[in-house]
Design brief:
- The chain is mainly alpha-helical.
- Helices cover about 60% and strands about 10% of the residues.
- The strands form two sheets. The chain has a three-stranded mixed beta sheet. A two-stranded antiparallel sheet has the order 1-3.
Length: about 210
């Protein structure tokens, strides 16, 4: 394999840093099974979610270019780069989910896995997969279904648009998307999503008195 370390090192830093390390005192989590109607503004207003999307997309794109085949590679060696890339994608998504400061909980890396798909696959495969998965999750009012459905759509649409030659890469991407959710079932952890807590009235009153 040919490794471009100038791309691989920043890719690893972007992908393998758990986002929960940056959760301060104002960050709260709530189970995704709850009704979301009144909480979406708080969730969408947390900048870390958008950072998650961007860093995953950039990290996956860098990873895709960082490992390549030498000229004349044959046999099983042809699959070595995609196998390494797939393993890193799977590990990164599981790391984002399982490293959580809340006890017996795992973060739901919605934005992170979305960024992985956008950065690692063609715009056609990524765009249609994300759009269909979002529509189904929103329509069924079951946000967790986004993970298994996106994994199936990436594999299915990738096979349709790219062909069987991309099966290894499609399987790796599907595993990276679905495993965070599957691991919470295996270890019986609550799947949660972070949001920025609103300032309470007591805190607002205390701040006003301090300014007088």
């Amino acid at each position: 394999m040919i490794i471009d370390w100038l791309k691989l090192v920043p890719a690893l830093l972007l992908l393998l840093t758990p986002i929960s390390l940056f959760h301060g005192k104002k960050i709260r989590v709530r189970p995704i099974e709850r009704d979301w109607d009144t909480h979406w503004p708080q969730i969408a207003g947390l900048g870390l979610h958008w950072i998650d999307l961007g860093r995953a997309m950039l990290g996956a794109w860098l990873l895709l270019d960082a490992i390549s085949l030498p000229p004349g590679a044959r046999g099983a060696m042809r699959y070595a780069p995609i196998a390494v890339q797939g393993a890193l994608l799977v590990f990164s998504s599981c790391l984002q989910s399982l490293v959580c400061k809340e006890r017996d909980s795992a973060l739901a890396p919605f934005m992170f896995v979305t960024g992985l798909v956008l950065g690692f696959y063609s715009p056609t495969v990524a765009g249609f997969s994300i759009l269909l998965a979002l529509t189904a999750a929103a329509g069924s009012r079951t946000p967790w279904v986004y993970f298994p459905l996106l994994a199936v759509l990436v594999a299915g649409l990738g096979f349709l648009f790219v062909g069987k030659g991309a099966l290894v890469g499609l399987a790796a991407g599907g595993a990276a998307v679905a495993l965070p959710w599957l691991l919470t079932l295996m270890f019986r952890q609550t799947l949660v999503l972070s949001y920025r807590a609103r300032r309470s009235s007591s805190e607002s009153g205390a701040t006003s008195s301090e300014l007088r």
